[in-house]
Amino acid sequence: MTTLPGVIEIAESVKGGKVTANQALADCLQRIDSGDADTNAFLRVEPDVARQQAQAVDDAIAAGKDPGPLAGVPIAIKDNIVMAGRQTSCGSRILEGYTSPYESTATERLLAAGAVLVGTVRCDEFAMGSSTEHCAFGHVGNPWATDRVPGGSSGGSAAAVAQGLVPAALGSDTGGSIRQPAALCGVTGLKPSYGRVSRWGLVAFGSSLDCIGPITRNVADTAAIMNVIAGPDRRDSTSVDTDPPDYLAGLEEDKPLVIGIPRQHRHEGNHPATEAAMEEARGIMESRGATFVDVDLEMTDHGIATYYVVATAEASSNLARFDGIRYGRRATIEPGESLEDLYARSRGEGFGPEVRRRIMLGTYVLSAGYYDAYYKKALQARRVIHDEFTKVFEQCDVLLGPTTAEPAFGIGEIADPLTMYLCDRYTVGANIAGIPAISIPGGFADVEGTKLPVGLQLQAPFLGESTLLRIAHQLQKATGHHLCSPGH
Question: Which CATH superfamily groups domain 7-256+409-483?
């Protein structure tokens, strides 16, 4: 399979008349038809709806109108971001067959920009997972080795982009769910600052942590999508009420920077290839005039505990609405059984084991007698983590570290939930603090003769996406790791 053109390349070709939006879509659909069986990334492909959207772009061009900055670009959408008249299941039986009556802000803005939304991709149920093994409709394989996980929870988004089925996908990130699969699949994934991209239409997991962001093959394409989806939204009360900059405009700027490397991210458990990726990045940036400093994020090892108390508490509250009455799966009960029996049976049949585990944990930490000991304490730790990042950014412009300690593990290899949760060690901090973070391809590890990607993570102060994208773009141009693809 030849390399799929990127977001910017497709949009320029469509607007320049080299190809039509329908032709670009046909190429994408052919790729999905011939390649998706390998990874199982797509849950639903909707060619008829996509063709209507592509035709609207071609009609606009024929009429001499501006089709938008993403004209004809095929994009996949994670299965927890709603689209009007299209199914959204969040990878869960409890929402099986649910059709959304409204459009999310992010997809609404993509459509207004001329993008073509080809379908939905698999994710961990309700975005709860680090491997996309917890989808009720089948797991996703990593394009580099299909017996290994693609990461999670946006594993379908990352796998579809890495395999070249689509040039871009939307994912969501509550504790690393964009960056971690981007790292394990060898693509680029951005978690924006909290509130920079509207959450309207994102089915809630942890409302104070959730973010929508793009997954693409390169940083420039990520910037192009951020130019469309970022910005204030009156329908989201947590939306940042300032207009974003032009993220593409500053990519080529070359300013001296101070880059911090957290001591706690140089962990003995890191794979040697991850350490090598960091050293390569350091050498490149030092040659461009960057200064490196060692910094401390002493709360790193408390981040997982803090996150899994706050996130599960919010999940317990958010998922209470799925009761089998208002919408979603409704179980059958026997005459004489109570409303509570209906609730319990509907949720028991509809929710998978990982979601049930997190709901129970969240309910426990919010319960009388434990609220102060766990939830209140986690909120206090969250403030300390936030303040620690703020203090560190007084010493440096950005932070550099690994996205994950290890490359992709085998499907079914990690059965212990606590071990799985530790996969998010380096990513949860950005969600807790609300700051932006990006994962870019950092090189490759040789694992038992298999070539597997590793990722580098950059983090910046709140609303510092432009700086992240600029540095990541410079690193990509210097290394070329993002140009590698499975099978090449």
Answer: Amidase signature (AS) domain (3.90.1300.10)
